[in-house]
Amino acid sequence: MATTMNPYSLLIVEDNQDLVMGLQDLLHHDGYAVTAAGTVAAALKLIRAHRFNAILLDLGLPDGDGLEVLKESQRLDPSLPVVIVTAHISSDRTVGSLAQGAYAYLTKPYDREELRHTLRRAIGVKELAVKVEQTEHLLSQSEERFRSLVDSATDAIVVADHRGVIVSWNWSASTLFGYADEEAIGQPLTLLMPARYHQAHEQGLAHMESTGKSRVMGSVIEVHGLKKDGTEFPIELSLATWKSAKSSYYSGIIRDISERKKADDALRRHEQLLHAVVNNTTAVIYVKYSDGRYLLINHRFEQLFHITMEQIAGRTDHEIFPKDIADAFRANDVTVLELKKTVEYEEQAPHEDGLHTYLSIKFPLCDHTGKPYATCGISTDITERKRIDGELRANDCRTCHALTAAPVGLWGWDLQTGQLYWSPQVDMLLGVAPGSVRGTQNELLALVHPDDRETIVHAMRHALEPQPADVTFEHRVLRSDGSVFWCVWTGEIIRDQDGIAVHILGTVRAT
Predict the structure, then answer these.
(1) What is the pLDDT of residues 259-284, one digit of tens each?
(2) Are 170 and 157 in contact (CB under 8 A)?
């Protein structure tokens, strides 16, 4: 006596045990009850004794052709979806299997997500087919169950007969296209599609009716739908067909992908913007996987190091730069990955005119778990700046030596605060201890010979007037030992954008 397996039970017919184990792990995780058979004989025994929701079938089996299993399953249950999984891509083994009743085919090595989606669609179509067949025989009893199943789907589901006339659809389809049930049921499918698709649709129906073959059955395609108000919108359409005792039927599972398209368009715009920014900067930008292999470089990198993105992809620094430089790059990258934070380095890279110094900002790129999978670097050539800084430091050193050797000091006067300051050489000229006098105009006047103070006050007042660009004044200094000598103060007046004097900078020397 035949037994009934658990809902959503799958039969895997495959003689490669490694593949079987992988499929079992995947499908068990998804909640399916999985049974496996490695031969035609074992598969036939199982499908005759049990009922499955779908079959994954390899055609190349050790004791025969897997098509025998397909034929027997179709004989026992024409609505049972059989998904062919085969390494053969010839049309007689792929399209040919569809012609013999297979729901869809996948080629090895299979994509796991594609397999999952195909199984979900196959089981959904299987259940829908059963419900439609029941409506033909027990319409009054099955209508409510059919509606409950179909209307619970978030995707639109449309069922049409062999003429392409809508015989049923769910609430999601009504909402999506904007028609009430009575406006759509009994109408041709062309009601839901732009005019440019009508001819191809009619030709496809005729071809399917005459040959039983279709290029789009069992696959997912992207086309456009047409709402009642005339609005076109992009859709993802999955088509299937089955036969009842009286007629053939088509079902379409329809998903509005308008938001996904908008997101894709936004993503493309952001990618274009990113590429424009990355490739139109003078900085060198690059991304390397955690193992050091290059993932991306910008145009500046290509120009400087004479290598293209295609040439560098998958290579490491040790394949491009001298070992000592590559070692330094790699050590810095590893540190960034370990610290999981942005780090700034000075690095050197070889150019045609010798080594250049770069200021490199490096930071980790992390996956959704927070684990770093790559480093990104933005490096700016600071060779010229380093040269200029070196020259400035050397010049400052020479200036300091010159000022130390000569009886010349530096002074400044902040005209906003009235604060005066000068270098230790000026203390020596004024005959005071270094650093003992700093401050106001009155403190300076106290060091000036009494007979010259009025002259100094007049010169300082004159410096605040709008006209002068510089100032010069001189005075005598009476030292504690009774000696007298002259000091000359010269300075340049610095003004703001309104012409107001804000600062004086200059030198002091003895005469």
Answers:
(1) 888 888 888 888 888 888 888 888 99
(2) yes
